[in-house]
Amino acid sequence: MKETWINYNTGEMRNDLIFPEELKKRQKKKENQIKGYEYVQKEILPFPTFLQEEYGNFIHTRYLALLDKLDYDVATAFRFVYLCTYMNYNDGYIIWNNKKINNSCLQHIFNVNQNTVTKIKKKLYEMELIFTDENNNIYVNNEYCYKGDVSGNKLYKNHFTRIFNDSIRELYNKTPDPREHRSLGKLLLLLPYINVFHNIICLNIKEKDIEKLILPNSAQMDEILHISSRNYIRQMSELLSIEVAGEPAILAINHKNVRMYAVNPRIYYGGTKLSDVTTLSEYFKAKGGLD
Questions:
Q1: What are phi and psi of 89, to 5 degrees?
Q2: What range defines the domain where residue 14 resides?
Q3: By CB atoms within 10 Å of each CB, which of 19, 52, 58, 71 scores lowest?
């Protein structure tokens, strides 16, 4: 009997795979991984399909490597990630209006004055985050951002996440003043501290039980955001005021009278379970909190 299976690394769905019955039973019990494919019950929307329909296309980003490369210059890091939302699948070329671009097109993408785009371009080239080929077409250094299947890529084994193109572009385009890109870049500083199941900022990101999450105190948040203690309230207010698709980028939630901060999966999400991301999605749509 043929069933529908999905590859969770690529989103590929197939109905031509036949597996022994005992292996199918193991799949249904969530003892799952048969050659990378997982059984999909017909009444359940597949995880990659949900991501595509709800949040659109995404890129993979090695956030720690990128921040380290730029010595935590978060404004440049955010601009680079924004540029990468226009990268082509697999080869990393920047595509604008369905064409590969050269340096003259960067001003159209970044939508800033010539002096600013010259500084941005200079920094990206100096840090070897972008290159040009023999035809002067720009492509991205795939060691830091990649669009495609990373399941066999050793560089993307740890410390990477999905970043969704539409949300990053919206955040960038709603912030025309380049001086404000540093505030947007602060969102990238949170990536190493986002729980993979709940998208809550914490110090034990692989903990499944929300009751056991270790939440950073204000002093630890100062370190995470690279700010002084006197700027903590202002910085958090700025982050909490950012919206994407009419939803908060960061949501302050109360779980049993404990205040937590969750990051909207519409911006980035590293988990793999449909139930987790759909629950998060509903919280942010309702702009509410946990019970």
A1: -65, 130
A2: 5-44
A3: 71
